[in-house]
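Researcher: I'd like a structural prediction for the single chain below. Treat it as a standalone chain; there are no partners to consider.
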Amino acid sequence: MMTSKKIIIESLQWLSENKRTHIHGFVVMPNHVHILWTILTEKPQHPETTFVSYTAHQFKAHLLKTDQHSTLQQFVSSQNDRDYHFWERRSLSKPIVSREMAFQKLEYIHLNPVRDKWDLAKNPEDYFYSSAAYYQNGDNNFPFLVHLHGYI
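Model: Treating it as a single chain, here is the predicted structure.
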């Protein structure tokens, strides 16, 4: 069965395989996602636009296929340009301007699941849908990851 988290992981994998991005770190949370990436190309479409569009279509297809119409209704859009709205209209994207900032953001991303608000894992590396285990233990559950140390 396809879950939202798996849809997000598949999209990150595709962006990497198709040389649109280098994914350095990520965490998929219950209601949001953090991605630390390097954009390699903006053609034919910016990777963020591709990611948001693809995942939204897949979320909708998954909910329809699994007969979760009541869940899908939670995402009905009030805007005229779409029927459903899965992502915030203007996501918060920040350019990384230094090595220090990159590692600060990576640490923030990895600590998300262990924060009291979420309490999804005891240790960052214990939360599967994250790059924390890759950095902490060298576990490569997500072969699309490109280590930040060798890149910045």
